[in-house]
User: Which sequence fits this backbone?
């Protein structure tokens, strides 16, 4: 059965956050290894009924491998799953007028679930970083970085530099960042990535202008731009896509063939599952 974007939301909504790792937590990967490692994490998930009985590369099932976990007495990295850091996972899938095909919001490491503010729009990470350096981003802004998706980049670069600079200026908890690129595991603050369709594929993110109001509501699973349909239609008619960044070679070929980030950003995507199949999967374990 195909894995679809909404499956990640279903799985995250019922899987607690129980491993206390940086950047949102206290410990590092070596600390996790000393505590009992990934086997211990798998054992916690298995004991809670959150893992399937899948076969691993060793020929044994994941649950059989997890059963051999050795927990270091007194470790504080991997918590009891009944006493998690948060009751749900570290990401959610949103949709809305700015992301009709979906996007991913990172929830780990901060507590904000909503933000509304004026868009500050940049065609690429370099331009956004330069604006941050010039201190042109202010509390309440929604920093929008587009043309960094699978087709537009081409590829899907991390927006780590911009978020790190915003945190360095004390804006990490007062701005939101929205991009059709992706974000790093080390990213801090409220960040939405994988916005689909991407700007280079004609997505609404390509129609945004400075000052447009953008609303992010994790509870409602929405990412919306507050622009009237007539205005958007006029923008579509006058829209001119920028020249491709890669015109020859393997990157140009990739940009022509790659699918949406919502389908995995692959060059030979399988047919997406139907909405009925996606709903049916909501009851299937991770």
Assistant:
């Amino acid at each position: 059965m195909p894995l679809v974007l909404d499956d990640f939301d279903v799985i995250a909504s019922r899987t607690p956050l129980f491993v206390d790792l940086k950047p949102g937590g206290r410990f590092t990967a070596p600390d996790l290894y000393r505590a009992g490692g990934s086997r211990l994490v798998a054992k916690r998930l298995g004991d809670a009924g959150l893992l399937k009985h899948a076969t691993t590369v060793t020929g044994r099932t994941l649950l059989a491998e997890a059963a051999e976990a050795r927990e270091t007495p007194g470790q504080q990295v991997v918590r009891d799953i009944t006493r998690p850091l948060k009751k749900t996972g570290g990401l959610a899938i949103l949709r809305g007028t700015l992301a009709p095909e979906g996007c991913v919001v990172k929830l780990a490491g901060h507590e904000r679930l909503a933000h509304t503010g004026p868009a500050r729009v940049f065609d690429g990470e370099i331009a956004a970083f330069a604006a941050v350096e010039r201190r042109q981003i202010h509390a309440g802004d929604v920093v929008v970085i587009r043309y960094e998706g699978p087709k537009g980049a081409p590829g899907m670069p991390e927006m780590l530099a911009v978020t790190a600079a915003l945190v360095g200026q004390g804006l990490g908890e007062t701005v939101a960042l929205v991009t059709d690129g992706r974000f790093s595991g080390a990213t801090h603050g409220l960040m939405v990535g994988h916005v689909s369709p991407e700007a280079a594929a004609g997505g609404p993110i390509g129609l945004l202008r400075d000052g447009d109001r953008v609303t992010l509501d994790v509870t409602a699973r929405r990412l919306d731009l507050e622009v009237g349909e007539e205005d958007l239609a006029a923008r579509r008619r006058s829209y001119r896509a920028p020249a491709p960044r890669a015109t020859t070679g393997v990157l140009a070929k990739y940009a022509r063939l790659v699918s949406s980030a919502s389908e995995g950003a692959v060059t030979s995507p399988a047919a997406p599952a139907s909405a009925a199949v996606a709903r049916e999967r909501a009851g299937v374990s991770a």
The mean pLDDT is 89. The longest strand covers residues 114-122.
